[in-house]
Amino acid sequence: MINDLKLLIVLQTPPVGVDFGLQKGAGNKYETIQTQRSIGRDMQFNLTIQVKNDRQKDDTPRFGGPFVQGKPMSQFLYIDIGELAGQVGGWVRRIKVPLSGITWDLISRVIEDPNAVLETRIPGTGKDGGPNCATIKPFDGWHARMNYC
Known about the structure:
The chain is mainly beta. It has one domain. The protein has 1 helix and 10 strands, in the order E-E-E-E-E-E-E-H-E-E-E. A hairpin with a 2-residue loop joins strand 2 and strand 3. The chain is globular.
């Protein structure tokens, strides 16, 4: 059973003047979409992924689609930064947004309500003052946001 799952990534107060975008595809065959240049305010990235397995057969959800990266037990999404997002000169980084913590209960809540989305909020600025990068730690996880649309 494959179901579409709507996600919202909120990148909180990233550094000014840096481009950020959502990576679609993997390896050398990817494109960066929804590219935005930071003005120091929160940025939002909306996407849809697929739930590829069945709650009745599997304890843990698995995901698919052009945005999903990694192996089944450690899947994630990428936010491309700077040159990787098409900006000439500057940073060359990626943020790894884990899909861990998405439970069957969260999936059910979002799939059943056409106005709901799973949301995560991640810091846009790293400890060095530049764009955050690598795997988000600590990661606050995903939460159902009702009445989004």
